[in-house]
Backbone:
């Protein structure tokens, strides 16, 4: 028999909709691979510049307790994401919708925390043009925040689609793929939190 | 396909031109050239071998008219594969040893009091040299531009930084090149065998693209006997003469001290014997080393040089007049983007001087040797 | 079943709109090819202007300002707008066919990659009429590239390269998913043609290298436009950070440029020697090894930058190591033609020249690995000679070989052999005349990226020779262009059937040009070079012997028993869509707005809206519209 997966392009007798997932999942994993290098390059830049404060503020302005709290919020959103996917697998659209919305809200809360943090730092004199430390800090956390924001939008979109019954397993970005993306964004945050906030050399 | 290897061999056999790397004029250059000869030999050997196999195969196994046979469908041979790998690895291992050794040699930091330490600052588009070992009466230091004077057989150790973008300092006959990076200090050793004939310095050039006039950022190395070098140092350390008021040269001085000292430093002794340094003095800190610099080349002994415009133009009254009249007609620059307050200099501007004023300034400069 | 060509295209498959909305990998491949060809002539023109200025000492054909733009754009064009897209053209057209598939995994994403590439190229080129093209060299070293923020030239470069990167990452993910999930039954990884393998390795190289330069570029953009200090030495920034981020991409990039060409040569040489590729597993694994080791040598571009002797020694030795798998390929190519029955037609000539020229370029590369020698060679015309030998004598010759080889499959007509041979000899001679002397110029002290040189340094004669060579190359490629026009557009080329070369791989089992669905029936693959094995068995001596039951060979259609029963009428191909083009247009407009900050905010707004419209429509649109 065929040892190759078949896509929805081919409507011969090999067509089998359950085989559709490996194609999109493969692409998502590849994309996440490139994202690893993307964030890796930014983290490397930050590591180079962690003490290049050019007379401005350095890591002493971090509020570890606050950032720990928002990190916890993001971590919890990965849990709700898993619950959403579970519900989807069981075909319970209502539960799926609840957990998707919860994930999105937790993500949005994290973002709100980030924005609040940034305004505090700017007040204390750390901007992108203060020092290479400032530039690399804002770029790293800013890009991460953009990824979270995109994830929140995708989650919200899926929650809305599930309302009209249009959330299929084999359609475009499904719950599992967005879950993969979301977990990745979370893991990146764990690395960032550790390297930037906790490990102060 | 035959043309290229012949040319490679020609290159190996005979360098040509004063800026060649293939006719070294010092021991470091010779070491590098020796390594090059070895590598070239190996590369030529491999090339001839591979080409022989390729051409032989093409000739021997060409399709002949009327030949209906089919070739043997050989899929591979582990022996040949492993043999090829071993062959390559052996050759490369052979070359890697002198490579690493040679690399460590040329990167060695020379120690001792007889090393001549010179600090180099790269600018867009000229070179500045500060002889930090040489100090003169009253604490004067030797600072000059574009033409490097060194004694024969002495290890010269350059400590280099840039005032703006990345440049690269390169004197092919003496050593490989070294990038000159803002915010960092890089180093290069130079040792020259013999004094250069007058008017025939060892040429070099900036070798990292640095913008508009990258091609016109040249270096001239003059090698002297120890005695001649000492004389040159003494001459460079002495101040030049500031014209007395109401003398013919004073007209030029009035223009010079109004306009030119915005960018150029000169150290002058006036009629009363007082020595003053006019012009801006910048201090660049890189890697905790301080480099003394200015916006334009130091002109105290301008006419002791043979060239100007960073070694690009012959220094004489005519060329210099043309330069002062319209610098961009000789060398591409962007002086309209100058912002001296923020330390940004991208060329010499047109100062709007009339021919008389230019002649007066040139007359004055000609006395500063 | 065999028979006459039956294209199952809807009536709306002709005309400009059909090409704008196409999601057919073959059409997308042709779009890439035509665009790459156009950029090739433009990039070549830029080189000719540069060479004309350098014909003699102190010429005034070009100002320094113009010269710096022209050589920058020449490098950028040839790397990003010619060689990468031409590799994409071949991969797009043939990867699915070589693995027995009907299309790539994501046909609309495929179209998106093409349109984003084209719009990015047009965006960058619009700079010529909008105040000046990028002029910081194709590598854009900081802090030169962060100077002059009031002039937007280098912003065209940052934004243009960033959007090109998005295009390539999307295409790479597409190709990886295709190879991993869409191979025909029996097509194991080690039965894939070498060209398919090289495309896969290249896709991985791009996935893992592009993000590094993307970060470098974004940081550069922030430095130039938002006062960031990533590369500002005054504030403690390190200009060398740019070089590291760039070359971590830049070095794997050169393997991206060469590996598909090596793949093509690995298909052409066996076909016209009438024996299999020698050492297939070694050729495949050495390609993968080159890709992998290629991530460990990037600082060999930085030997003079002051990294310190330990780093320099490490990268020097690593660079020597990478010569080993490269040598393996050379031996295997020679082994392929050895003992064969060599037909010296034009595709074969270009592939053989590839081998010879690449050996020269590879050897000069090894001389670069000798760090002390490199301190003399770096940033001189010696380097220019090296990379043109591998990229022009290597990659370009390989891709040209591919054009002559596969032209009959694309169009149903063979390119003219006489014109082809004239093209070949003029190109070979012109190429060597141009770049051979540059080795000598570099060793004699001539730095690169210099708009003029003085008399008295002994450079004039070789420069003149190089310029004459460059014009010879022009003539050669004009003949090539004429050959293409005459053969296809004027329909004067010799018509061929499925298998004009008595080939070995799956593309020769389908009509020339192929129907939109590629295979009437999905092939079942039993071995490497399965098609050849359907036509030929081996006798006791190991020589190929024609299998009588199957008619095949030049000009015949093959009744191939290997296919699986099925009906062509049941195949639904993905429907055309304008959303990929629309989305990429939105990105290009956003990019233009970013270049012209702050008043470009309007353009950014428009661009983002268009992009979201495109992406939204795309995600909600069904893959195959029911008829």
Residues:
């Amino acid at each position: 028999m065929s040892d190759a997966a078949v896509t929805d392009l081919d409507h011969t007798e090999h067509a089998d909709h359950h085989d559709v997932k490996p194609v999109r999942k493969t692409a998502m994993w590849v994309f996440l691979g490139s994202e690893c290098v993307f964030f890796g390059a930014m983290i490397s830049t930050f590591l180079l510049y962690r003490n290049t404060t050019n007379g401005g503020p350095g890591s002493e302005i971090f509020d570890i307790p606050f950032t720990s709290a928002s990190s916890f919020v993001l971590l919890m959103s990965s849990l709700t994401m898993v619950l959403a996917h579970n519900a989807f697998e069981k075909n319970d659209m209502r539960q799926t919708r609840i957990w998707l919305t919860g994930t999105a809200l937790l993500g949005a809360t994290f973002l709100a925390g980030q924005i609040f943090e940034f305004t505090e730092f700017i007040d204390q004199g750390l901007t992108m043009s203060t020092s290479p430390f400032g530039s690399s800090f804002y770029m790293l956390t800013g890009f991460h925040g953009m990824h979270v924001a995109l994830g929140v939008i995708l989650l919200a979109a899926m929650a809305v689609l599930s309302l009209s019954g249009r959330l299929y397993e084999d359609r475009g970005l499904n719950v599992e793929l967005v879950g993969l993306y979301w977990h990745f964004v979370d893991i990146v945050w764990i690395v960032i939190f550790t390297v930037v906030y906790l490990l102060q050399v | 396909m035959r043309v290229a290897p012949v040319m490679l061999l020609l290159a190996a056999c005979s360098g040509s031109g004063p800026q060649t790397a293939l006719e070294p004029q010092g021991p470091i250059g010779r070491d590098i050239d020796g390594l090059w000869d070895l590598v070239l030999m190996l590369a030529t050997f491999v090339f001839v071998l591979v080409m022989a196999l390729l051409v032989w195969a093409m000739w021997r196994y060409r399709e002949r008219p009327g030949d209906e046979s089919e070739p043997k469908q050989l899929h591979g041979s582990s022996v040949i594969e492993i043999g090829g790998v071993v062959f390559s690895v052996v050759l490369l291992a052979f070359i890697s040893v002198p490579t690493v050794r040679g690399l460590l040699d040329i990167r060695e930091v020379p120690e001792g009091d007889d090393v001549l330490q010179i600090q180099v600052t790269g600018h867009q588009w000229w070179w500045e040299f500060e002889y930090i070992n040489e100090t003169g009466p009253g604490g004067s230091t030797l600072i000059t531009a574009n033409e490097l004077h060194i004694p024969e057989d002495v290890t010269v150790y350059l400590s280099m930084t840039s005032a703006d973008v990345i440049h690269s300092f390169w004197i092919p006959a003496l050593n490989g090149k070294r990038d000159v990076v803002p915010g960092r200090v890089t180093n290069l050793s130079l040792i020259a065998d013999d004094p250069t004939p007058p008017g025939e310095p060892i040429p070099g050039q900036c070798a990292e693209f640095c913008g508009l006039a990258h091609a016109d950022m040249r270096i001239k190395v003059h090698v002297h006997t120890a005695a001649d070098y000492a004389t040159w140092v003494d001459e460079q350390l002495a101040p030049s003469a500031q014209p007395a008021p109401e003398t013919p040269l004073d007209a030029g001085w009035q223009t010079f001290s109004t306009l030119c000292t915005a960018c150029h430093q000169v150290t002058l002794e006036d009629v009363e014997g007082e020595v003053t340094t006019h012009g801006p003095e910048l201090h660049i800190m890189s890697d905790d080393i301080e480099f003394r610099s200015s916006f334009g080349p130091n002109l105290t002994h301008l006419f002791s040089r043979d060239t100007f415009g960073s070694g690009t133009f012959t220094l004489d009254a005519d060329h210099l007049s043309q330069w002062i009249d319209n610098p961009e007609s000789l060398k591409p620059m962007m002086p309209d983007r100058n912002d001296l307050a923020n330390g940004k200099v991208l060329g010499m501007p047109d100062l709007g001087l009339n021919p008389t004023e230019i002649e007066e300034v040139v007359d004055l400069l000609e006395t500063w040797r | 079943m065999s028979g006459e060509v039956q294209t199952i295209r809807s009536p709306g498959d002709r005309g400009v709109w059909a090409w704008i909305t196409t999601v057919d990998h073959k059409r997308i491949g042709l779009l890439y090819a035509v665009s790459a060809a156009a950029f090739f002539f433009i990039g070549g023109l830029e080189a000719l202007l540069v060479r004309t200025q350098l014909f003699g000492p102190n010429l005034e054909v070009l100002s320094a300002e113009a010269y710096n733009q022209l050589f920058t754009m020449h490098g950028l064009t040839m790397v990003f707008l010619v060689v990468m897209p031409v590799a994409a053209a071949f991969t797009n057209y043939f990867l699915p066919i070589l693995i027995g598939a009907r299309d790539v995994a994501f046909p609309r994403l495929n179209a998106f990659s093409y349109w984003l590439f084209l719009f990015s190229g047009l965006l960058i080129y619009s700079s010529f009429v909008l105040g000046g093209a990028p002029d910081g060299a194709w590598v854009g070293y900081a802090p030169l590239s962060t100077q002059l923020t009031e002039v937007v030239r280098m912003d065209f470069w940052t934004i243009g390269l960033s959007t090109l990167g998005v295009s390539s990452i999307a295409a790479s993910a597409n190709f990886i998913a295709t190879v991993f999930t869409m191979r025909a039954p029996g097509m194991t990884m080690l039965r894939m043609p070498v060209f398919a393998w090289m495309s896969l390795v290249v896709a991985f190289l791009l996935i893992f290298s592009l993000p590094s330069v993307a970060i470098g570029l974004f940081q550069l953009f922030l430095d130039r436009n938002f006062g960031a200090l990533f590369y500002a030495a005054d504030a403690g920034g390190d200009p060398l950070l740019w070089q590291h981020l760039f070359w971590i991409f830049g070095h794997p990039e050169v393997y991206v440029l060469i590996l598909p060409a090596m793949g093509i040569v690995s298909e052409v040489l066996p076909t016209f020697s009438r024996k299999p590729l020698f050492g297939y597993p070694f050729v495949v694994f050495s390609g993968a090894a080159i890709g992998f080791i290629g991530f460990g040598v990037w600082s060999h571009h930085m030997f003079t930058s002051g990294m310190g002797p330990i780093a320099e020694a490490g990268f020097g030795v690593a660079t020597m190591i990478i010569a080993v798998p490269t040598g393996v390929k050379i031996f295997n190519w020679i082994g392929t033609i050895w003992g064969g029955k060599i037909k010296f037609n034009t595709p074969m000539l270009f592939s053989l020249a590839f081998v010879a020229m690449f050996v020269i370029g590879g050897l000069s590369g090894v001389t670069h690995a000798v760090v002390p020698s490199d301190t003399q060679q770096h940033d001189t015309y010696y380097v220019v000679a090296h990379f043109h030998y591998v990229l022009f004598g290597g990659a370009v010759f390989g891709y040209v070989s591919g054009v002559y080889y596969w032209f009959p499959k694309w169009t149903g007509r063979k390119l003219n052999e006489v014109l082809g041979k004239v093209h070949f000899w003029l190109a070979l001679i012109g190429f060597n005349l141009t770049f051979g002397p540059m080795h000598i110029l570099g060793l004699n002290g001539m730095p690169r990226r210099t708009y003029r040189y003085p008399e008295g340094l002994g450079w004039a004669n070789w420069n003149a020779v190089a310029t004459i060579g460059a014009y010879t190359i022009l003539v050669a490629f004009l003949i090539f262009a004429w050959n293409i026009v005459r053969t296809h557009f004027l329909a004067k080329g010799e018509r061929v059937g499925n298998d004009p070369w008595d080939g070995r791989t799956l593309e020769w089992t389908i009509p020339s040009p192929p129907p939109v669905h590629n295979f009437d029936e999905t092939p079942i693959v039993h071995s490497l070079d399965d098609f050849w094995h359907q036509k030929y068995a081996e006798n006791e001596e190991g020589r190929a012997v024609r299998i009588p039951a199957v008619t095949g060979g030049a000009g015949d259609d093959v009744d191939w028993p290997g296919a699986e029963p099925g009906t062509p009428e049941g195949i639904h191909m993905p429907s055309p869509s304008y959303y990929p083009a629309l989305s990429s247009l939105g990105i290009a407009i956003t990019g233009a707005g970013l270049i012209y900050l702050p008043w470009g905010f309007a353009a950014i707004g428009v661009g983002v809206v268009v992009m979201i419209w495109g992406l939204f429509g795309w995600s909600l649109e069904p893959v195959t519209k029911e008829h």
About this structure: The domain at 240-366 of chain B is CATH 2.60.40.420 (Immunoglobulin-like). Helices of chain B lie at 3-13, 27-60, 78-106, 226-237, 248-259, 317-325, 355-366.
